[in-house]
Write a structure and sequence with these properties.
Low-confidence stretches of chain A: none
Structural class of chain B: mainly beta
Largest sheet of chain A: 7 strands, mixed
Distance between the termini of chain A: 40 Å
Order of helices and strands of chain B: EEEEEEEEE
Strand content of chain A: over 45%
Largest interface: A-B, 20 and 25 residues
Low-confidence stretches of chain B: none
Mean pLDDT of chain A: 96
Helix content of chain B: under 10%
Number of helices of chain B: 0
Helix content of chain A: under 10%
Radius of gyration of chain B: 13 Å
Shape of chain B: globular
Number of helices of chain A: 0
Shape of chain A: globular
Oligomer: heterodimer
Amino acid sequence: QVLLVQSGAEVKKPGASVKVSCKASGYTFTDHYMHWVRQAPGQGLEWMGWINPNSGGTNYAQKFQGRVTMTRDTSISTAYMELSRLRSDDTAVYYCARELVVGDDFGYWGQGTLVTVSS
Amino acid sequence: QSALTQPASVSGSPGQSITISCTGTSSDIGSFNLVSWYQQHPGKAPKLMIYEVVKRPSGVSNRFSGSKSGNTASLTISGLQAEDEADYYCCSYAGSITYVVFGGGTKLTVL
């Protein structure tokens, strides 16, 4: 079965960077885009961008361009999302998510990684 | 402010049906049949309930159904059950630049 397992919670100071990992199993990693979606406490879902694990190509939401970098390591079927110049309003649960088959939906989700930004 | 507009809350009694609306624009919902709906219980990751407006993933109850008219999509849950109490989010493809937009979420309370 498809499984996405994310790295553990992080606490960072304002201005620092955080890198969250998402290890995929149960399917061919390079066959499906990996997306990142975040959710601030008590708030809704916000799409951050995707990475094509096959080519390494990326597409970032305009809001995060210049601050987010998505990468992957195909040898270990793992995607990464790094967010820099953290602010307090970046405090959120960050999810990796994969399309169900091939499309613009999110059929499989990681368990989420809480990133807390606090001085 | 979210790109798609959903009611903040809806409620219904067990066995009843409810509908959650999701209003967008001609740039998202109105242009693409790529609306999806997600159920999220507290502290859990979202779960895909409907994709491509009307399709249900394997394992999702047929009590959940989706539809679309113009710039508005809807999620209907029939035969409400206590376990349906959760937050629901709509999402639509919005073109290659914006990619996707989400609604602000609707809290469903089963009375």
